[in-house]
Amino acid sequence: MTLSISLRGEPRRWFKTLAMVALPILLLVALISLQRQRLTALQNSSVANQDLAQQDESKAASLALAQKMPSFGFDNLLADWFFLQFLQYFGDDEARASTGYSLSPEFFRVIIPNDPYYRLFYVFLSGSTSNFAAQPHTAVEIVTQGLKALTPAFPADGFYIWRYRGVDELLYLGDGEAAQLSYQTSADWARQSSHPDAPYIVENSQRTAEFLANNPLSKQAQVNAWASVLANAFDDATRQKAIDRINALGGSVIISETGEMRLQFPPDD
Fold first, then answer.
1. Is 257 among the domain residues?
2. Contacts (Cβ under 8 Å, ≥6 apart) of 43
3. Mean pLDDT of 211-239
4. Maximum Cα–Cα distance across the chain
């Protein structure tokens, strides 16, 4: 009797067995590789965050030194130099998402004493320190320091700076009485100014001061203040925040097809 054995199915069975053994090993190797990549990414992220924190520490030390050193007559140049550094710091979204905006006021502790007359410095001071760094007390303190160097006549647009202080006092500190004084001073200074915006500021600031004199929690005054935030905002998030607050207070912001914004105040308080 001849015994015939077929080997045709053997390679398939061996291949199937090999696949069953090898597949889990390959999956395990792949998982280990992915885990190593993830660990490396986490380590790199941790190192990057440490580097950013160290950069902030170094910058804080530099700013602390700059606040004490003499300007040797280069006041404006020093203010401009540190303002450029502030813009670089403030505009680094990735770094700010990691370490925050806490150094913002420290830049202005250098900038404002060296050049208290340039109005736009105060716009960035208020926006960065009160809004982003959540330090409105510090913002008001630095603004007040700058105002000591100003007069109703110089600079011609100094009345705006009193308004900026009033906005911070009203919206971020909730101090309607202090804000009333700031708005009233803004109106008084505008009356003595030759600046082309002065007549508008006289009317607007005086009206807000009167609202606050009658009611320190006046919604109309708050809407007016948020309108100032909206007008001076330099990022979309702040603009939207201002619009949302105006709407919540009963006012509204109407935007035309040309992009022009018109403010509608809430009913009388």
1. yes
2. none
3. 89
4. 127
Check pLDDT > 70 for residue 28: no
Domain for residue 228, yes or no?
yes
pLDDT greater than 60 at residue 1: no
- Rounded to two decimals, what is the model's pTM? 0.76
> 189, 160 in Cβ contact below 8 A?
no
Q: Please report whether residue 27 resides in a domain.
A: no
Q: How many angstroms separate the CA atoms of 141 and 145, rounded?
A: 6
Hey, CA dihedral for 44, 48, 49, 53, is it positive or negative?
Answer: positive
Looking at residue 188, what DSSP letter applies? H
- Structural domain boundaries enclosing 242: 116-264
User: CB pairs under 8 A, 24+ apart, for 79-86?
Assistant: 79/110, 79/111, 79/112, 79/114, 79/115, 79/118, 79/121, 80/115, 82/107, 82/110, 82/111, 82/114, 83/107, 83/111, 83/121, 83/124, 86/111, 86/124, 86/128
Between the alpha carbon of residue 206 and those of residues 54, 70, 101, 214, the distances in Å are: 47, 40, 34, 12
Residue type, position 236, single letter: D
Residue 118 identity (one-letter amino acid): Y
DSSP 81-120: HHHHHHHHHHH-HHHHHHH-STTHHHHHHHHHHH-TT-HH
Confidence of residue 42 (pLDDT cuts 50, 70, 90): very low
Query: What pLDDT is recorded for position 63?
Result: 93
Quick check: is 147 in a domain? yes
Q: What does R_g of the chain's alpha carbons equal in angstroms? A: 31
The total domain count for the chain is 1
